[in-house]
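Late entry, zinc ion complex.
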Amino acid sequence: MKITEIFKKSLLINFLIVVFCSTSTSMAQDAPSPQGKKEGVEKKYENEIRFLSKHRKVQKAFQTIEELEPRTLRELIMLTEIPAPPFKEELRAAKYAKMLKEAGADSIWIDEVGNVIALRKGSSGNKTVALDAHLDTVFPEGTDVTVKKRGDTLVAPGIGDDTRGLMVVLTVLRALEINNIETMADVLFIGSVGEEGLGDLRGVKHLFREEGPGIDSWIAVDGGDIAGIVNGALGSNRYRVTYKGPGGHSWGAFGLVNPHHALGKAIRNFTIDADSLSRSTEKVSFNIGRIGGGTSVNAIPFESWMEVDMRSAVPEQLEKMDRIFQKSVQKALKEENQAKRDGPDLQVDVEMVGDRPSGKIPVDNSLVQKAMASAAFFGATPSLITGSTNSNIPISIGIPAVTIGRGGKGDGAHSLHEWWINDEGHLSIQRALVLLLSETGIRN
Ligand SMILES: [Zn+2]
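Prediction complete; structure with ligand written out below:
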């Protein structure tokens, strides 16, 4: 995801920001829009984080994180240079599993869809907290992922999004192990697959399936600086619609169903009603991103297709938009078939190519409060964000979840010239550690 520059802005203007993240090359878009206000941190959580940070072992773990910096940076480069294209994360997953194992988790496995999971047992075992970053990048196979150094700046596709996140997760595990910190809750350290684009959150969806590992609390590392905290899930539904007919000569076969004519009718039906819904109180967007089909100016096309994206942070709004869309497509089919003078009926195929649910974890939820308190503890002004990240899935089913920043400075996510600088990057790892511990509890 690409929220670095937005996080920078959020620091400056203390706005709540809606950020759109995700997507493949054909569907990439990140459109911030300021809305709302800064929320407050309750004193009790401020105190809790401060108290936890003074714990002798936590202090030592903070120091370990600083001492590990050269190694963390070295391994960030190594991991970035292992390609992880959409649906092809295996190579990077295998290496990451090995690294987690060497760091000392109790058991490590790669699940059916390719997620790397490392379990570190807690003493109570009655709660499971996950710390996650995503393995996949948006870049196709064959992309040059060599890390180029320009002074302190590291330039490579995927270096920040989300390879740096993977290093944050791993280094937190190392700091716990080296300092023998025993948590109360079990912790799952996760490198997930399929966060980006048409991956459609398949890794995290698998983790939250019914027979999944039973995660009670979810912290994803995927984003910019320490200030930004995603507690709202921007949902999206995406479709590819294809109208199909026999096709034929524009003069000789005149009177056959025409897929393009139907598509035009569908677009008109949809955009009129979608427009009026989108002007109602809660923001909901709609977009026809691509259309295509046809062979010649004097041929009735045999197919006509479009790709449609609709988004909202409010589930009911997204559902309403979806219903308008489905109705419009079917209405156009009927209209075109009624206009037909000859030949077989027009067919339509509606394929869902993206399904990211929406929702929100309230600001007074303890995990959200701890995420804000820990950001403030490290000198940032916490800012709540709605985004499209792995947290969408737990948020949509009401499981406490936040997405926090990977730290350092960077920009250009989803581009070949993505860059990242280790500007006090250790702070974000220390923050992730203290946030995790506030959620798991410490035994010793
Ligand atoms: Zn990401």
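The two ends are 36 Å apart (CA to CA). Will revisit in the morning.
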